[in-house]
Amino acid sequence: MIKMVGFDLDGTICDSIPMCIEAFAEAAAPYAGHELTEKEIISTFGLNETGMIKAVVKNGWEEALNSFYENYKNLHEMCSAPFDGICELIACLKQNQIIVPLITGKGEKSCKITLKKLGLEQIFDEVLYGSEERFNKRENILYLLEKYAVKKEEFIYIGDTVQDADACSSIGVTCLLAAWAELADPARLKAHNPYTFESVFELKKFLELKIK
Questions:
Q1: Is there a contact between 61 and 24 (Cβ–Cβ < 8 Å)?
Q2: What are the pLDDT digits (tens) for 50-61?
Q3: How many CB atoms sit inside 10 A of residue 12's CB?
Q4: For residue range 120-151, what is the model confidence (pLDDT) as tens digits?
Q5: Residues in contact with 152: Cβ distance below 8 Å, sequence separation at least 6, in sequence order
Q6: I need a labelling partner for 99 at 20 to 30 A (CA). Which of 30, 59, 151, 166 fits?
């Protein structure tokens, strides 16, 4: 029986990755000394925004970080709502007494901005954030399993990257991959993890069978 379903945020709950890339590029480029490519920015994903900025800016990273937050808030109209069906999916899980945490690589400040903008501040049972030093979803999942006394086979994580799938595999928990965002690569994700879904509706049908 499934007792906990954790969610990623960017690219899973909402289509915020294009906004993140634009906000980051505008903030970091003046301090990095060159225009940042999309590939260069995406390579920093998995760290929180402090770690991302520090990965490309050596001098003036604090100023670049402050600029990122301003850009992030101002650009949030690019991502004004969750993906269709996400709130209904989470409501369905909660109706079945499933614990629903958010486990994101974002930092606390940017995560809170997004949750407030999307009206999702109260929807998750717990919110765990990223680290500036390392990809920490593995340890955050282990923390939740221990805190709520949930067995590995009773837990599912919904992410959107190969990195998410690998983190789950390393500790023996199931990862379902979301491939419904604008920048998603369904073929690549499916090649790495067959449990890849191209619509929230498809995922909801799969989970309903797991929780009944």
A1: no
A2: 999 999 998 999
A3: 30
A4: 999 999 999 999 999 999 999 999 999 999 99
A5: 145, 171, 172, 173
A6: 166
Of residues 146, 108, 121, 169, the one with CA closest to residue 13: 121
* Alpha-carbon span 94 to 79, nearest angstrom: 25
Which pairs with CB-CB distance under 8 Å and at least 24 residues apart come from 194-197? none
One-character DSSP codes across 131-184: -SSS--HHHHHHHHHHHTT--GGGEEEEESSHHHHHHHHHHT-EEEEE--STT-
Strands 196-197 and 174-178: parallel
To the question of pTM greater than 0.85 for the whole model, the response is yes
Per DSSP, helices labelled H in 7-107 are 17-32, 38-42, 49-56, 61-74, 86-95
The amino acid that residue 91 corresponds to is: A
